[in-house]
Amino acid sequence: MTKQAHSLHDAVHDDLIDELRDHLESLTGSTIEPGDDFFDRGLINSLRALEIVVHVEQVYGVSVEVEDLDLDNFRTVRRIAEYVRRKRGKQPSPVTEAVSK
Q: Is the pLDDT assigned to residue 93 strictly greater than 90?
């Protein structure tokens, strides 16, 4: 993450990212940054991935369709938050887009 993107992220408090991060840290027992790929880090297996999908459906009221079960939608906290926003019909904010690049 660039210094500018990091500053933008710090300037904007994102409750969705915070809640997802807290939930995933409780699942894994590890500290996770919003852009960390927890599959690459070996923190999430297929059973935990299913738990993430169930959490997203139950807590955020979105229906995860079969075609949405792409790991890229659930690879990082930031991507999960973007997925939830898309499913709710909200586009990611410019800050979220700048930080995710």
A: no
Q: 């500018």: which residue's tokens?
A: 4
* Angstrom distance (rounded) from CA 19 to CA 81: 10
In this structure, are residues 17 and 77 in contact, taking their beta carbons and an 8 Å threshold? Answer: yes
Q: Would the CA dihedral through 75, 91, 63, 21 be positive or negative?
A: positive
At 6-53, the pLDDT tens digits run 444 443 558 999 999 999 999 999 999 999 999 999 999 888 999 999
Three-state SS string across the chain, please? CCHHHHHHHHHCCCHHHHHHHHHHHHHHCCCCCCCCCCCCCCCCCHHHHHHHHHHHHHHHCCCCCHHHCCHHHCCCHHHHHHHHHHHCCCCCCHHHHHHHC
Task: Report the predicted TM-score, pTM, of the whole model to 2 decimal places.
Answer: 0.74
Half-sphere exposure of 25 (CA within 13 A, CB side): 12
